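Figure S7 source data.
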Amino acid sequence: MTKISELLRQGTSLSVELWPPRSRDAQERLENVLTELYPLHPTFTSITYGAGGSTRERTHDLVVRIAREGLITPMAHLVCAAHSRSELVDILVRYRDEGINNVLALMGDPPLDSTTPLEQGELVHAVDLVELAKEVGDFCVAVAAHPEGHPLSPDIESDRDYLARKMKVSDFAITQFFFNADHYFRLVDDLAGRGIDKPVLPGIMPITKVRTVYKMAELSGTEVPSDLAERVERVAGNPDDVRKIGVEVAIDLARRLLAGGVPGLHFYTMNESAATIEIVNALSYFH
Ligand SMILES: Cc1cc2nc3c(=O)[nH]c(=O)nc-3n(C[C@H](O)[C@H](O)[C@H](O)COP(=O)(O)OP(=O)(O)OC[C@H]3O[C@@H](n4cnc5c(N)ncnc54)[C@H](O)[C@@H]3O)c2cc1C
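Tokens for the predicted flavin-adenine dinucleotide complex:
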């Protein structure tokens, strides 16, 4: 399978995050989402992993199935949390032997609806998992970047230092979602100042539900600008209006990012295709 690092050298990428379905109904919905997304010709799709291993088989099965279909290159997320080193090796060996060579190495977060903190794994930080993946096979390994700093980081300088260290041993990064393009450009400048010029794909999450966005923003340390918060709160009782604002905001953000020369756009689809399709079509950039 082609490494995503090679695909990124071919031009501005378009990628979509999906999660493995939990039920038969969700599986059917995902089939429709995939069918609707294929015509956008995404460069790759990244498949999330439930920290603690809750989606271990489902992530694996979806990644392998998408790879076999050959319509889009999949990337498997994998997390350190709650896993032993040997469990991680087993997962990586299985991917390697099945020809899956794109992995996103993460520390791991508890699911949105969980109140229990995650058990620490034998490997603590994502950088350890990057190194393990590179030992196990010839993987293209991506990592997460946090434009506004990770909530656990005591300050932005140490956040950027650890990120630069992680990027030195990996191939590219995908950012947490954000609403202000300046945060992204500052991150890229900070990395350049630390000698890192590998691709950093900005993550875009169209707002479709007010509560989910606040919860995710709190967990990831993302600022929801006050003017945006006021706009969505004014229409919070009307899901169609919330979604419309979410799409408008994402189009503006994507335009600013493309104008600034980003290497690609990565969409957090939340397993829904409509908003991503609407945004990509409005950009008239990828066809
Ligand atoms: C694109 C993307 C996809 C994601 N997909 C998933 C998913 O599928 N499943 C999931 O559970 N979560 C996922 N997450 C969430 C991610 O697991 C969390 O953001 C997590 O809290 C941090 O992950 P990380 O890989 O950036 O961690 P790390 O790189 O380990 O960083 C975490 C914190 O530790 C600090 N740090 C890093 N290295 C060191 C070191 N050596 N010593 C001391 N401090 C250090 C960092 O500065 C930061 O504050 C995703 C996030 C992104 C951006």
